[in-house]
Amino acid sequence: MSSKAEPAEYNIPPEHAELWRQLQEFVFDEPGAEYNFSKRLAKRNKWEHDFALRVIEEYRKFLFLLKAAGHMVTPSIVVDEAWHLHLIYTYSYWEVLCTQIFKVPMHHHPGNGTDEDQTKFAAIYERTLDDYKRFFGEPPVEIWGKPNESIDWRAILSALPVPKRTKSALLDLFPRPSDEAP
Is residue 113 very low, low, confident or very high in pLDDT (cuts 50, 70, 90)? Predict the structure, then answer.
């Protein structure tokens, strides 16, 4: 019995149904390859093969978010490992995924390690988790981690050295505690 949820359990809007169908059909493990994508992912990260297969399914969901969310998203550390590996499968990534499915190139933008950058990506990650929940339900903790509910994102975003207009748009993404239901 598969632990993979059926598409009916997901909340894929009609305008993204074709994208999700294509991503579900996307083949990561080339048939007949002895050392395929999932085995390489498992070996590189010292994971069990079954876990690598689960990570690939979560990467598939991340790819959906990358295209459907309408804003920048960021993967979990574990899902990012699948993305890094996929990037070296250049034909699969650039020709099949980006050109045929996404119809646009999707570049990986790693952070630069500064405090501001880490803060920015932490906020984007929290929003990614919100989007994940909206489309797919609760993300598996062993792959996506736990959201940090103690973080005051409004305070962090207020301190970012960005133009006022940008800061205002970012703050709109996070309700004030007084705006939330009791």
Answer: confident
